[in-house]
Amino acid sequence: MAPLSIQGVRKSFGSVEVLNNIDIELEDGGFLVLLGPSGCGKSTLLAIVAGLEPSSGGDVVIGDRNVNNVHPKDRNIAMVFQSYALYPTMSVKRNIGFGLEMRKVPEAEREAGVRKAAKLLQIEHLLERKPGQLSGGQRQRVAMGRAIVRDPDLFLFDEPLSNLDAKLRVEMRTEIKRLHDRLGTTTVYVTHDQIEAMTLGTKVAVMKNGVIQQFADPQTIYERPANMFVAGFIGTPTMNFLEGTLEQAEGGLVLRHAGGSLGLGGIEQEVGSFVRKPVVAGIRPETFTAAAGSASTLSGKVDVVEPTGPDTMVILDVGGQMMTARLGSRDRPRLGDPMTLGIDMRAVNLFDPQSGNRI
Amino acid sequence: MSRTSYSATSSAPLSVWDAINPVRMLGELSETRYWMYVLLLPSALLITAVVLYPTLYGMQMSFREMRLNRPDLGTDWVGSKHYARMLADPIFWVSLRNTAVWATSSIVLEFVIGLIAALALNRNLPGTKMLAVVILLPYFLPNVVAGHMWALMLDPRLGVINDVLVRLGWLDSYKAWFADPATAMAAAIVVETWHSFPFFTLLIMAGLKSIPSDLYKAADIDGAGPLAQLRLITLPMLKTIIAAAVILRVIGLVNSPDLLLILTSGGPGRSTQVLSLYAFQMAYKDFNFGYAGALSVVMFVLLMGFAYIYIRLAKVNQD
């Protein structure tokens, strides 16, 4: 176990810059999730940490050791690949013990290590099989076994769950979480799945076009997104963006929008300098309430009603802007009816539409 | 909709012409499971005519007397006479030994050089595409052309290789490589290797492309060096391709006398006499087709045995 420090890391392929000045500090035992859409540079950053890809600048420090010029095998890391990268011609046992074998660990010790890892991952009965004879979930476990058997300073996961079906993905996510809680190894985890990021990470770095958009704990990322990209990327259904102009009314600040005006009482942002300027209110679907008794309300026409079981998603047409509200399963408004929804303004974020940043 | 209209047509009464229309009958046959046999028929007939029949004819010939220059002996059934003669024929045993040396040395050299070339070309560095074409060139040359070219280059009077070696000081004087029993086989093997190693390069390159790069990344992290990666990942993953390439090359080397025919004709003495060449000369120089047939049958059986044992040892069918 060791802390990880990424300092000013850059990477460019020719004139294309894929990573721009990345700074990340991860505490010993932390779980860092690199989150972003395809092509944002998250996997490249992981490859640089692993030493599989040279950086164009900056430093990677594992523990108190700068590993810029250290070969992957000497970084004391272990990696789980999206493709699992199990050696097809070797048995599961040899796959798991391969790192130890290459490090000339005595056979008895190796055997004990493999047994222990296999027991932890409940794959003891598969040890003599070849990877080709395993299911996707079993291969995933073997890949994890290969990582944990070496007791490394750092675990690296490169989209490890994206080749699994939905049910197995949830199971393995829990498994990874349990493993991290038990082993406490510092972990870097690359994914484009925001649920994985929220559930697993102690820290999340949301990336876009090679730049870190926000680096914070999952709660902060969700509740106080740094900009509209982060706000829109995290959460399903996505955050609603209500465009309008900030104005000073009698009762306080209001957001004047095409479908009326929204009182901003209770908002936890200092927005005085934006009066008479366009702003965007970011409203999560669950901050709406069907009870219209609240101080701030939005009115519109019911456009779509989607019951999902536990919730009912209502899409409201508010002066031409579509707002999705997550309401209780018993709320079943009728299509085309007018509807007024209350909003918990403490959970609303205001953004500057020019820069996209949170005000 | 379309289903209804289909059954409507097929249940309509057939006209006389429809019933005997060959195109229509063929169309109906193509809907049945016998269609497979119809499609296989042309190639089956062809193989029977040009492979199966000559093979069987050759086999029965090996049990007959058949000397074109001794018609007085007739073409009677002689049983295992030719095979008995073979056991006592010193040239047969020399040829057998030479065949083993010829095939084994060539295969080993071709494989090693082919593998090295394939690994180098697989790196995708600038210029590798061009180099790949250059490296594959020898294989595109017909054996006859390659043979004559090398015969000229190794010529004892005007060969460029002798010239270079003398100038380098590695040789005192020009050497007749194919006239010395000590060097003839080795020189022929060099020519053969030069000509055919691209076959291995080509197949191994195709195999290398199918190995996922993640395996090498994982091996890097696991601490496997380049040699360990070659031994534990690359070669095991190429096993099937290598096995196929080796079998094809062994068959080619054992069966084709052309290169040796051009370079040495089996000489000097019997130092480069191999089975295929011996059988060829027996048939077309001595016109003893019976004995030549027996030699061919022995080669056939040896190759079948080799392929069987090799596939078992290589465990190609596993994983």
Notes on the protein architecture:
- The complex is a heterodimer of chains A (359) and B (319).
- Chain A is of the alpha+beta class.
- In chain A, 23% of the residues lie in helices and 35% in strands.
- Chain A is built from 8 helices and 20 strands.
- Chain A has helices at residues 42-50, 92-102, 107-120, 136-148, 166-183, 194-200, 218-223, 228-233; strands at residues 4-13, 16-26, 31-35, 57-62, 65-66, 77-80, 154-158, 186-191, 203-208, 211-216, 240-249, 252-257, 260-263, 278-283, 288-289, 297-307, 311-318, 321-328, 338-343, 349-351.
- Chain A has a 6-stranded mixed β-sheet with strand order 6-7-8-3-9-10, with helices on both faces.
- Chain B has helices at 2-10, 16-20, 22-29, 35-61, 81-87, 90-121, 128-140, 143-153, 160-168, 184-209, 213-222, 226-255, 258-263, 275-284, 289-314.
- The longest helix of chain B has 32 residues, at 90-121.
- The radius of gyration of chain B is 27 Å and the shape is globular.
- The chains are: A alpha+beta (359), B mainly alpha (319).
- At the A-B interface, β6 and α2 of A face α11 and α12 of B.
State the end-to-end CA separation of chain B: 48 Å
Question: Can you summarize the main beta sheet of chain A?
Answer: 6 strands, mixed
Helix content of chain B: over 70%
Please state the overall shape of chain A, judged from the principal axes of the Cα atoms. elongated
Give the C-alpha Rg of chain B.
Answer: 27 Å
The CATH architecture classification of the largest domain in chain B is: Orthogonal Bundle
Number of domains of chain B: 2
CATH architecture descriptor of the largest domain in chain A = 3-Layer(aba) Sandwich
As laid out across the biggest beta sheet of chain A, the strand order is 6-7-8-3-9-10
- Kindly report the CATH topology of the largest domain in chain A: Rossmann fold
Q: Mean of residue pLDDT of chain B? A: 85
Largest sheet of chain B: none
- What name goes with the CATH superfamily of the largest domain in chain A? P-loop containing nucleotide triphosphate hydrolases
Overall morphology of chain B: globular
Order of helices and strands of chain A: EEEHEEEHHHEHEHEEHHEEEEEEEEEE
